[in-house]
Automatic annotation (TrEMBL):
Recorded catalytic activity of this chain's protein: L-arginyl-[protein] + ATP = N(omega)-phospho-L-arginyl-[protein] + ADP + H(+)
UniProt name for this protein: Protein-arginine kinase
Gene Ontology molecular function: ATP binding; creatine kinase activity; protein arginine kinase activity
Record motif RDXXRA motif of the pArg binding pocket involved in allosteric regulation, residues: 340-345
Domain Phosphagen kinase C-terminal: 26-257
PROSITE patterns associated with the record: PHOSPHAGEN_KINASE (PS00112), PHOSPHAGEN_KINASE_C (PS51510)
Family: Belongs to the ATP:guanido phosphotransferase family.
Gene Ontology annotations for the cellular component aspect, listed alphabetically: extracellular space
Record flagged with keyword Kinase: yes
Gene: mcsB
Keyword Coiled coil attributed: no
Length: 357
């Protein structure tokens, strides 16, 4: 393992995620992602590997071990130097995309010490910077993203058109180049069968609902990612306002659905929560989907007051710690699916026992 990678894979939970954020009983995190490309350089989707080398060299020369504002000691990590399991761990922590994990030569990521900022280099675009915040903080996240983007632009000439905006590899990102997304835990809307009816309505508003790892991923543990689809012809502020409006409505609907569940199905809901708690606490073998479902039930149980001796930080930690990459990273070997299920159950039991102790 390269030494520069070690701090980012030693801890399952990123430092910024340990902080409290607005509406954090329902909104887990806010992310702003900006796609940018260098002017007068071929974009990654058509460039030869050698043509991407100057991009990597500039990022390393200008930003490796640099700091900006609260984003200290930015570390550049080359994809070429990573093992497949190490890449998977970074995907599980949302520090890189699955797409970047498939790259090797002349691609990498720049990560701040607190893991709140990651800048993917030569993924689909030359640069895809991501800024994360706990809870619902879209306006603050956008403001910080603009500031960080301006800092990068001091050394980089971006590909920009006065009429179209920022030019990107994928036409759906042209314009602002921005994807704003909010990660939400919506168990009550799922349990009451309302979420499936709401997704088409959300899509009609120019937003998209995805799973925990973005495009093509499943909404494991009732966690949904709500983000904008439109990037051209609208300002970043307008996009943020639309997303904020929909997210606040979803928060209201989830709160109402939780209240309804407690009032009309209290014993059944309480039974579900504690059955899931028992499963996590005593299982000797458990699959990732069942783990996600049980952790979701446990989180809901904490939010509605059934469980008061566990911290949601523990659940955030277990949500990452029990993923396949992390399980194998800690085992220092490749594990079969059954071996992962056994090790996952063991880690959960140990972590809950430690917390209760």
């Amino acid at each position: 393992m390269i030494m520069s990678l070690q701090p980012f894979i030693n801890e399952a939970i990123s430092p910024w995620l340990k902080e409290e954020g607005p509406n954090n009983d329902i909104v887990l995190s806010t992310r702003i992602r900006l796609a940018r490309n260098f002017d007068k350089f071929p974009f990654p989707i058509i460039a030869d590997k050698e043509e991407l080398s100057p991009i990597v060299q500039l990022i390393q020369d200008e930003y490796h071990h640099q700091s900006f504002d609260s984003y200290q000691d930015l570390e550049y990590i080359s994809m070429e130097e990573l093992q497949p399991i190490e890449k998977r761990v970074l995907v599980e922590k949302h520090l890189i995309s699955p797409n970047l994990a498939e790259k090797s030569i002349n691609s990498g990521v720049l990560i701040s010490k607190n893991e709140q900022v990651s800048v993917m280099v030569n993924e689909e675009d030359h640069i895809r910077m991501q800024l994360y915040f706990p809870g619902l903080q879209l306006e603050k996240a956008l403001e910080q993203a603009f500031t960080f983007d301006d800092w990068l632009e001091e050394k980089i000439d971006y590909a920009f058109d006065e009429h179209r905006g920022y030019l990107t590899s994928c036409p759906t990102n042209v314009g602002t180049g921005m994807r704003a997304s909010v990660m939400m835990h919506l168990p009550a809307l799922t349990l009451t069968q309302k979420m499936n009816k709401m997704i088409p309505a959300i899509n009609q508003l120019g937003l998209v609902v995805r799973g925990i790892y973005g495009e093509g991923s499943e909404a494991l543990g009732n966690i949904f990612q709500i983000s904008n689809q439109v990037t051209l012809g609208r300002s970043e502020v307008d996009i943020i306002e639309d997303l904020q409006s929909v997210v606040k409505k979803l928060i209201e609907q989830e709160e109402f659905a939780r209240q309804l569940l407690v009032e009309q199905s209290e014993l059944r809901l309480e039974d579900r929560v504690f059955r899931s708690y028992g499963t996590l606490k005593y299982s000797r073998i458990i699959e990732s989907k069942e783990t996600a479902r049980c952790l979701s039930d446990l989180r809901l149980g904490i939010d509605v007051g059934y469980i008061d001796h566990l911290s949601k930080t523990i659940l955030n930690e277990l949500m990452i710690l029990t993923q396949p990459g992390f399980l194998q990273q800690y085992a220092k070997e490749t594990l079969s699916a059954k071996e992962r299920d056994i090790r996952r159950a063991s880690i959960i039991r140990e972590r809950l026992k430690l917390e209760n102790g």
